[in-house]
User: Fold these one by one.
Assistant:
Number 1:
Amino acid sequence: MTRGAAGPTLVLVLAVGVLVATGVTLMLERSLTRILLGVILLGNGVNLLILLGGRAGGAPLAGTAPAGGLSDALPQAMVLTAVVIMFGFTAFLLAVAYRSWHTSGDDEVQDDLEDRQIVRLAGRDEVAAADLGGEGADDDPEQVDPEQVDPEPARRRLRRGEES
């Protein structure tokens, strides 16, 4: 932004649009690495958008300029907070991607078994059966809740199924 301009320049507005559009596109991918890059780009685009919302002017220090000529410090503080939050979220996504790579050998997000069943039933235009997963407190304690069992990664199940 320039000091004499009434608002943000077209280049900065286009940069926000490109960052957000690219970030959303990457977040729709199946690879955790691309999702991570999409989150980073989206966060930077939103941070730039927040900064564009502030008033341009001099440094917000008392006595350096008239009160009407100072820039707004709130967007800067909000962006600083957002950067710290994005750093923590990026570290979390990196840990998830590393764990996925370590356990299954790739970072692609697999379909859930229930998702596959919904797609299969939708293809046949059927209604799914009732969920008998045992989620209530009055269920049989000897029955194992299938949602609480940690299944093997899908790729290992597929490899094991091909070997037999």
Number 2:
Amino acid sequence: MKAIRKSVMAAASAALVMGLAACGGQGTKAPDAVDGSSARPGGAAAGERADAPAVLKAAMEKMAQQNSYRTVETARTGNEPESRAEMAFRNEPEATEVKTPDTHMVSVGHASYMATTDIPGKSWFAMDEPNSGAQKPTASPSTPPKENAGRRVAGSVKKWVGALLAASKDLKRVGGETVGGRATDHYRGTVVLADLKNYQGPAMTKDYRDLYLLQSGKAGMEKAEIDVWVDKSGFIAKEEEKGRTPKGDERITEEFSDYGVDPKIKAPDAKDVATWSEYVAAGSKRYRTHG
């Protein structure tokens, strides 16, 4: 049973945290920019361009105001096959949908479901034991939820852009490019993990700093090159992290679209959902049959 749970949670974790050659970006929705300095990236005046840190800081703040978005993420390390995931996120009410070539997961509130073809008469199974969320406190509607660095709703923005603002000594605009049909400014900087480890300041909270260092350290990176593309309305259109690891060069790319468009994520119909226990029993039966 523990082995089954471990494999399922590993699949979910890989989909949510690592994410997975960005090709989205079509049909991007965002509030129309108002003519004025506040609508331009970094609050630049007409005919001017704000410096790179101001643009990226403003982009983070703008993204934090969005209730939902979609992203396509790809990752490759060395000669390993490229992984890919299409993801949709909504902050309130909280919901996530992740699709990879092999998995389809939906989370609504505290409940998570994984699609399956292994249980007769059911197309999903619940990833939590009954009553497993009974002890989870419910915040008052007037109380902002405590920020969780492990929550995937913010994409990798708070880790990657935060790391650039905290530790990059060479952050700059490197040119203009079109991403998913959008004109963007392309920014790049290098983050040395040893420098970031000692950072304490407003650009990056300790939780996000520690999470970034943990994930990059596990990959075996000593430094990372991070690229961010910001469109003319100040929204992040794309971001990418590259670094060298013992397994070879690693690249993770994330492209964003549909800011503010409700992805209409909902839980599967209860009649189509098996319990965790039923999923485990089905797995045990398959093992006895084919083992």
Number 3:
Amino acid sequence: MTQPPSQAPPTTDTVEALVRRQLSEALGGRRGMVEAAVPTLTFTVVWLLTRRLELALGASIGVAVLELAARLVQKQTVKFCVNALVGIAIGWVFVHLAASRGGSADDQALAYFVPGLLYNAGYAVVMGLTCITGWPLVGFMIGSVTGDPTSWHTDRQVVRLCSRLTWLLVLPCAVRALVQGPIWLAGHSGSVSADTAVAALGVLKIAMGWPLQLAALAAMSWLLGRNHTPLQHGGRAGGQVSPARGQG
């Protein structure tokens, strides 16, 4: 029986392309990044101008719905608009919880930003744990290219490279949580005014969103570009991933 042709061996170039594609899909390109930012910006501006929480939430939903309609008319993917609507819905749930517990309008406005803080903190912890346990997430991305999700783990150099790449994905989320978390706590405790905290969180959520992801991508590309051990299939059966030496 004729053996099916094996997949092309992954190199640092293909790994870099994979990482770039994964982040590009997650960010949605320039338009996807704008679609993610505008509802948050709308909520922040309307709240600061009117201090009417229902109006701010409604305005952010309206903007997201308009973005969704534009995508549908143009017959393009609505994934990023739906993600924005889901994010607003989750924020509304936290606002409602704050209101049900007797929170003031300021507490409710701050509650809108809690899901993002929890997401970034949780993502950083989970991704960091994959590195600490020796099974970094980027390794499974490489496994998706080779067709064997775990063979990369047999080579320490590959594991080390994947750990470094995964830590670079952890960094943006950790920075967001560490910077924005104290601001939220200060606004919640009254150390700073709620308006100041909401304005800062709204601006930082946008400023520390896709720019940090792009910075992480650039750092990953630099790391892969300077790496001297491109990933290739080994000579043993099963398509094991191993680094090729002598590349400079």
Number 4:
Amino acid sequence: MGRRQVHHRTSGGTLVTGLQGARGATEHATAIIVGETGILFVGSSGAGKSAMAFACLSSARSLGWNAALIADDRTCLEVRAGRCIASCPEPIRGMIELRGSGIATYRRVRRGVVHLVVAPAAASADSRLPESGETFPCRGVVLPLQRMWHDGAVDPLSALRALRPDCFSVM
């Protein structure tokens, strides 16, 4: 059965991305838990999802927070009790690609609730100030979406905590 990449922005500021196939959708995404917050990184191949997720995991660990990988590259999403749940296909569980360096293993969890979606963006004049109020649909559950440059100039976890404090518990 064929798969096709789906990636578009709706007029309401919603980002829709994923692989549509015979068995439903598997997101081309990376999912992590930092502290008590589940974060899903979405975007095309090479967008910086894994690098940004790894930077967030490293920052969380340096703060003494819980930090765990749910999935890298392929993330299964489902809704249970009105919440978006991310999990990982067994063959790649616990592995994260550090582009240009190889595959690393990281502390992992089997699944986690997603609270925030991040879309890495290349630095440009057009992406300097992303639209506010963007959302990401997860099988009928609407999640906040934050676009962020992946230029490495700012610690992504610190930026996310400043931009979306409502998504993070006081640790």
